């Protein structure tokens, strides 16, 4: 719209932005203060000691656990999703619509709802570990991934594939040289959603991981700040920042793709 | 969808079928687990002890307990309040207002505000919980900046206004999603329509209420569908901030489910809670999907 942005609107917006980021002040003031006491105050010292603590020992190990779980889940979801979404998008399989509707319903399923059976299955098959978390998260993620990828593949014109076939391209070449590059934005979105979803995931690893060095950062942070008493706030805040950074970083890296892909998420429902 | 004449597909049916197999297995597993959750809800299965091995069928006993014992109905009510105020009122309305306002402003202001809101959304749940616990604590930002300078004694917000605090934290965290969705939706409203309304003398308020809102109605329904379901089953933020307390003030259904299943170990009863949640979410989804399909 072309109505002039009034000064009042700008001030209101700026005010809101300040309110929105203000809770971060405490996090940053404490993380860079080696003598942190968890109070909201201007630090008398400045240093990176807390970050040193947050990357060593158990904490450092938890960082790698999170990376393994998040990257593993995202990659597995995307690979499994792509190899099923392409045929789903192109072939007229009997019962396809029924299957797609099942996916829509499954996607609405609250993950808490299948937690108990999931736990039992993992316990029986000895998968109460990281691999189990990756598989479980992929299972929960897949309806969403499949639907989204199918929608993106639907937008790739089939004429291009016909042309490539006439030129002598094989199925593999058609998929890797035409379909995948053209739906890059969609794949990036799906990967991003799966990655951050798994990176943030708390409930599943809380139930699946039983020992401290198997915790991902989410559970590690919860365990650390749940313990009352002598809390090392400097360490916790530095750890929080390290934990939050990849999720935020990945978003800004993929941002351009995200905006294209995001419209698809909304409209297709 | 005319694909019968696409030789690169029909000639490779086996390969394509093989590609679908892993997904089919995983989806099958999900269906199987869902069926299991239904089956468990009729048993007295426990997490540990004798009943974790020698469980028995108890018929509808778990479902009777949902309504006769304290807990479930209170949790349902807490959840409804939480969903209504944090998702529907907070995130949706605020997200829409931001999307509508920011469209008319300079790109620098727009990106700054966008990034600020996004930070909340991108922040992992547990960090957000940690941050808001600190912000609302007795020595936290709100007390130091507002309450104490006004001459009041510091308030421990999480103890006194737990539900309000988690609601605000969730608005803070989730508004970005609604904003992004509404932003994309408003982009799809053609400029001509808005211009035409302006030429016809519509006020800015009328342009939004009578022109843009009806056009983006499908997006509103989609957004409602998503955020209602998510918020309804949202667990980590509340659990990490309050654990459901003080007392049971913030024990939403997801927290109640966790506490019953994994703290108390009543897996059978827990499954009954999840079945109830599935049914509620199913009914809500049908309602929103109708809203989505209904002709204007």
Structure description:
The complex is a heterodimer of chains A (269) and B (296). Chain A has a single domain (58-232, 244-268), classed as MetI-like fold (Orthogonal Bundle), CATH 1.10.3720.10. The relative contact order of chain A is 0.14. Chain A is built from 14 helices and no strands. Chain A starts with 6 loop residues before the first helix and ends with a helix. Chain A is mainly alpha-helical and 269 residues long. With 296 residues, chain B is mainly α. Chain B has one domain (45-293): MetI-like fold (Orthogonal Bundle), CATH 1.10.3720. Helix content of chain B is 73%, strand content 0%. Chain B has helices at 7-10, 13-40, 61-68, 72-102, 107-122, 125-135, 141-147, 157-160, 162-187, 191-199, 204-215, 217-232, 236-241, 253-263, 267-293. In chain B, helix 12 (217-232) packs antiparallel against helix 15 and helix 14 (253-263) runs antiparallel to helix 15 (267-293). The longest helix of chain B is centred in the first third of the chain and has 31 residues, at 72-102. Chain B starts with 6 loop residues before the first helix and ends with a helix. The chains are: A mainly alpha (269), B mainly alpha (296). Chains A and B meet through helix 1, helix 2, helix 4, helix 5 and helix 6 of A and helix 1, helix 2, helix 4, helix 5 and helix 6 of B.
């Amino acid at each position: 719209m072309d109505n002039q942005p009034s000064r009042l609107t700008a001030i209101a917006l700026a005010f809101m932005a300040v309110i929105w980021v203000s809770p971060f002040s405490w996090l940053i003031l404490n993380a860079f203060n080696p003598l942190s006491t968890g109070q909201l105050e201007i630090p008398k010292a400045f240093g990176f000691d807390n970050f040193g603590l947050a990357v060593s020992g158990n904490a450092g190990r938890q960082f790698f656990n999170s990376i393994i779980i998040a990257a593993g889940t995202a990659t597995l979801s995307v690979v499994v999703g792509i190899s099923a979404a392409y045929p789903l998008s192109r072939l007229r399989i009997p019962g396809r619509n029924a299957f797609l509707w099942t996916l829509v319903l499954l996607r609405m399923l609250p993950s808490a709802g299948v937690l108990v059976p999931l736990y039992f299955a993992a316990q029986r098959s000895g998968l109460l570990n990281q691999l189990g978390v990756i598989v479980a998260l992929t299972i929960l993620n897949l309806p969403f991934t499949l639907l989204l990828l199918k929608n993106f593949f639907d937008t790739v014109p089939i004429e291009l594939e016909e042309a490539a076939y006439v030129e002598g391209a094989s199925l593999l070449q058609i998929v890797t040289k035409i379909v995948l590059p053209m739906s890059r934005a969609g794949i990036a979105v799906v990967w991003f959603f799966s990655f951050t979803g798994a990176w943030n995931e708390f409930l599943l690893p809380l139930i699946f991981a039983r020992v401290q060095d198997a915790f991902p950062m989410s559970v590690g942070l919860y365990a650390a700040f749940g313990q009352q008493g002598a809390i090392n706030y400097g360490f916790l805040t530095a750890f929080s920042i390290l934990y939050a950074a990849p999720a935020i970083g990945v978003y800004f890296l993929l941002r351009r793709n995200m905006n294209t892909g995001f419209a698809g998420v909304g409209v297709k429902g | 969808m005319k694909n019968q004449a696409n030789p690169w597909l029909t000639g490779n049916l086996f390969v394509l079928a093989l590609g679908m197999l892993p997904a089919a297995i995983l989806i099958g597993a999900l269906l199987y687990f869902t069926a299991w959750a239904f089956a468990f809800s009729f048993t007295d299965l426990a997490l540990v002890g004798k009943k974790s091995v020698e469980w028995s069928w108890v018929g509808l006993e778990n479902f009777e307990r949902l309504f006769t014992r304290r807990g479930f109905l209170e949790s349902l009510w807490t959840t409804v309040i939480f969903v209504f105020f944090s998702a529907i009122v907070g995130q949706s309305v605020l997200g829409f207002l931001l999307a509508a306002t920011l469209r008319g402003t300079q790109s620098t202001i727009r990106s700054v505000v966008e990034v600020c809101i996004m930070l909340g959304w991108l922040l992992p749940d547990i960090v957000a919980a940690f941050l808001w616990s600190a912000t609302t604590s007795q020595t936290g930002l709100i007390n130091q900046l507002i309450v104490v300078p006004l001459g009041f004694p510091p308030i421990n917000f999480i103890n006194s206004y737990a539900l309000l605090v988690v609601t605000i934290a969730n608005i803070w965290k989730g508004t970005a999603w609604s904003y992004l969705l509404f932003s994309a939706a408003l982009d799809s409203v053609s400029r001509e329509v808005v211009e035409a309304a302006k030429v016809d003398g519509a006020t800015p308020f009328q342009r939004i209420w009578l022109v843009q809102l009806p056009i983006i109605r499908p997006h509103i329904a989609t957004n409602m569908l998503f955020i209602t379901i998510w918020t309804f089953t949202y667990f980590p933020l509340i659990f990490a901030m309050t654990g459901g307390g003080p007392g049971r003030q913030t024990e939403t259904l997801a927290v109640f489910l966790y506490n019953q299943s994994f703290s108390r170990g009543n897996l059978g009863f827990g499954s009954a809670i999840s079945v109830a949640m599935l049914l509620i979410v199913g009914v809500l989804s049908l309602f929103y999907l109708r809203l989505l399909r209904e002709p204007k």
